[in-house]
Amino acid sequence: DDELQTDGNRSGHFRNGELGLSPTNEDVIRIIAAQLAEIGDQFNKEIQGRVVNDLVQHFLNENLSTEEITLHMSRVVRELTRSIPSDMEQEKAMLVLAMVLTKKIVNTVPSLLHRVFNTTLNYMNQQLHNYIVEMVSA
Protein backbone atom coordinates (compact mmCIF):
# COMPACT_ATOMS: atom_id res chain seq x y z
CA ASP A 1 0.00 0.00 0.00
CA ASP A 2 2.97 2.32 0.49
CA GLU A 3 4.48 4.15 -2.45
CA LEU A 4 8.11 5.09 -2.97
CA GLN A 5 8.32 8.55 -4.53
CA THR A 6 11.71 10.14 -4.88
CA ASP A 7 11.10 12.57 -7.73
CA GLY A 8 8.74 15.06 -6.09
CA ASN A 9 5.72 14.01 -8.16
CA ARG A 10 2.23 13.72 -6.69
CA SER A 11 1.84 10.86 -4.31
CA GLY A 12 -0.97 9.83 -2.08
CA HIS A 13 -4.09 7.77 -1.92
CA PHE A 14 -7.30 8.77 -3.66
CA ARG A 15 -10.54 8.96 -1.75
CA ASN A 16 -13.69 9.37 -3.83
CA GLY A 17 -11.59 10.70 -6.69
CA GLU A 18 -9.77 13.21 -4.48
CA LEU A 19 -6.13 13.11 -3.51
CA GLY A 20 -5.73 12.53 0.24
CA LEU A 21 -3.70 15.74 0.76
CA SER A 22 -4.99 19.30 0.90
CA PRO A 23 -3.63 21.53 -1.90
CA THR A 24 -1.64 23.64 0.56
CA ASN A 25 0.02 20.62 2.17
CA GLU A 26 0.69 19.15 -1.25
CA ASP A 27 2.51 22.32 -2.36
CA VAL A 28 4.61 22.36 0.82
CA ILE A 29 5.46 18.70 0.43
CA ARG A 30 6.38 19.25 -3.23
CA ILE A 31 8.78 22.08 -2.29
CA ILE A 32 10.36 20.01 0.48
CA ALA A 33 10.69 17.03 -1.87
CA ALA A 34 12.43 19.18 -4.51
CA GLN A 35 14.91 20.49 -1.92
CA LEU A 36 15.61 16.99 -0.61
CA ALA A 37 16.05 15.67 -4.17
CA GLU A 38 18.63 18.37 -4.90
CA ILE A 39 20.59 17.48 -1.76
CA GLY A 40 20.21 13.79 -2.62
CA ASP A 41 21.78 14.34 -6.04
CA GLN A 42 24.84 15.83 -4.32
CA PHE A 43 25.07 12.97 -1.81
CA ASN A 44 24.54 10.36 -4.52
CA LYS A 45 27.91 11.19 -6.03
CA GLU A 46 29.73 10.88 -2.72
CA ILE A 47 28.46 7.48 -1.53
CA GLN A 48 30.97 4.79 -2.38
CA GLY A 49 29.91 1.54 -4.00
CA ARG A 50 31.34 -0.58 -1.20
CA VAL A 51 28.93 1.04 1.29
CA VAL A 52 26.00 0.13 -0.93
CA ASN A 53 27.31 -3.39 -1.55
CA ASP A 54 27.72 -3.94 2.19
CA LEU A 55 24.11 -2.89 2.79
CA VAL A 56 22.95 -5.11 -0.09
CA GLN A 57 24.63 -8.09 1.59
CA HIS A 58 22.80 -7.35 4.84
CA PHE A 59 19.47 -7.13 3.03
CA LEU A 60 20.16 -10.37 1.17
CA ASN A 61 20.92 -12.19 4.43
CA GLU A 62 17.53 -13.63 5.31
CA ASN A 63 18.81 -14.68 8.75
CA LEU A 64 18.91 -11.04 9.84
CA SER A 65 15.77 -9.56 11.31
CA THR A 66 14.32 -6.25 10.16
CA GLU A 67 15.49 -4.72 13.44
CA GLU A 68 19.09 -5.88 12.86
CA ILE A 69 19.11 -4.48 9.33
CA THR A 70 17.56 -1.22 10.54
CA LEU A 71 20.30 -0.90 13.17
CA HIS A 72 22.97 -1.52 10.55
CA MET A 73 21.40 1.05 8.22
CA SER A 74 21.30 3.53 11.10
CA ARG A 75 25.03 2.99 11.75
CA VAL A 76 25.85 3.48 8.07
CA VAL A 77 23.78 6.68 7.88
CA ARG A 78 25.49 8.04 11.05
CA GLU A 79 28.94 7.26 9.60
CA LEU A 80 28.08 8.95 6.29
CA THR A 81 26.63 11.95 8.14
CA ARG A 82 30.05 12.67 9.62
CA SER A 83 31.35 13.53 6.14
CA ILE A 84 28.52 16.00 5.46
CA PRO A 85 29.25 19.74 5.76
CA SER A 86 28.50 20.95 9.27
CA ASP A 87 26.24 23.76 8.02
CA MET A 88 23.51 21.23 7.15
CA GLU A 89 21.04 20.03 9.76
CA GLN A 90 22.06 16.55 10.87
CA GLU A 91 18.49 15.25 10.68
CA LYS A 92 18.07 16.53 7.13
CA ALA A 93 21.33 14.87 6.11
CA MET A 94 20.24 11.61 7.73
CA LEU A 95 16.87 11.70 5.97
CA VAL A 96 18.38 12.33 2.56
CA LEU A 97 21.12 9.75 3.06
CA ALA A 98 18.56 7.10 4.00
CA MET A 99 16.58 7.84 0.85
CA VAL A 100 19.66 7.90 -1.39
CA LEU A 101 20.91 4.61 0.08
CA THR A 102 17.47 3.09 -0.51
CA LYS A 103 17.53 4.17 -4.13
CA LYS A 104 21.07 2.87 -4.67
CA ILE A 105 20.31 -0.50 -3.06
CA VAL A 106 17.14 -0.99 -5.11
CA ASN A 107 18.95 0.03 -8.30
CA THR A 108 21.62 -2.56 -7.50
CA VAL A 109 19.21 -5.39 -6.59
CA PRO A 110 15.62 -4.54 -7.63
CA SER A 111 14.21 -7.68 -6.02
CA LEU A 112 15.00 -6.13 -2.61
CA LEU A 113 12.55 -3.26 -3.12
CA HIS A 114 9.93 -4.42 -0.62
CA ARG A 115 12.42 -5.27 2.15
CA VAL A 116 14.52 -2.13 1.65
CA PHE A 117 11.49 0.14 1.45
CA ASN A 118 9.98 -1.28 4.65
CA THR A 119 13.31 -1.07 6.47
CA THR A 120 13.80 2.54 5.38
CA LEU A 121 10.30 3.45 6.54
CA ASN A 122 11.00 1.73 9.86
CA TYR A 123 14.30 3.63 10.20
CA MET A 124 12.68 6.97 9.35
CA ASN A 125 9.80 6.38 11.76
CA GLN A 126 12.18 5.46 14.58
CA GLN A 127 14.89 8.04 14.02
CA LEU A 128 13.39 10.95 12.11
CA HIS A 129 9.63 11.02 12.72
CA ASN A 130 9.62 14.22 14.78
CA TYR A 131 11.97 15.97 12.35
CA ILE A 132 9.74 15.10 9.39
CA VAL A 133 6.61 16.31 11.20
CA GLU A 134 8.34 19.58 12.16
CA MET A 135 9.66 20.08 8.61
CA VAL A 136 6.20 19.66 7.04
CA SER A 137 4.44 21.83 9.61
CA ALA A 138 7.01 24.67 9.47
Protein described:
- Keywords: Apoptosis, Cytoplasm, Membrane, Mitochondrion, Mitochondrion outer membrane.
- InterPro entries: Bcl-2-like_sf, BID.
- This is BH3-interacting domain death agonist.
- The chain has 138 residues and is mainly alpha-helical.
- The protein has one domain: Apoptosis Regulator Bcl-x (Orthogonal Bundle), CATH 1.10.437.10.
- Helices cover 69% and strands 3% of the residues.
- It contains 6 helices and 2 strands.
- It has helices spanning 23-46, 49-60, 66-81, 90-108, 113-127, 129-137, and strands spanning 14-15, 18-19.
- It has a two-stranded antiparallel sheet with strand order 1-2.
- Helix 2 runs antiparallel to helix 3, helix 3 (66-81) crosses helix 4 (90-108) and helix 4 (90-108) runs antiparallel to helix 5 (113-127).
- The longest helix is centred in the first third of the chain and has 24 residues, at 23-46.
- The radius of gyration is 15 Å and the shape is globular.
- The two termini are 27 Å apart.
Quick recap of the structure?
The chain has a single domain (26-137), classed as Orthogonal Bundle (Apoptosis Regulator Bcl-x). 69% of the residues lie in helices and 3% in strands.
DSSP helical segment count? 6
Could you tell me the CATH topology label: Apoptosis Regulator Bcl-x
In total, how many beta strands? Answer: 2
Average pLDDT figure: 79
Radius of gyration: 15 Å
Low-confidence stretches: 8-19
Output the strand order for the largest sheet: 1-2
- Strand count, sense and closure of the main sheet? 2 strands, antiparallel
**Class, according to the CATH hierarchy?**
Mainly Alpha
The helix content is 55-70%
Q: What is the assigned CATH homologous superfamily?
A: Blc2-like
Which shape, going by the Cα principal axes? globular
| Order of SSEs | EEHHHHHH
Query: What is the number of domains?
Result: 1
The secondary-structure class comes to mainly alpha
What is the beta-strand fraction?
under 5%
Q: Which second-level CATH architecture applies?
A: Orthogonal Bundle
Report the end-to-end length measured between terminal Cα atoms.
27 Å
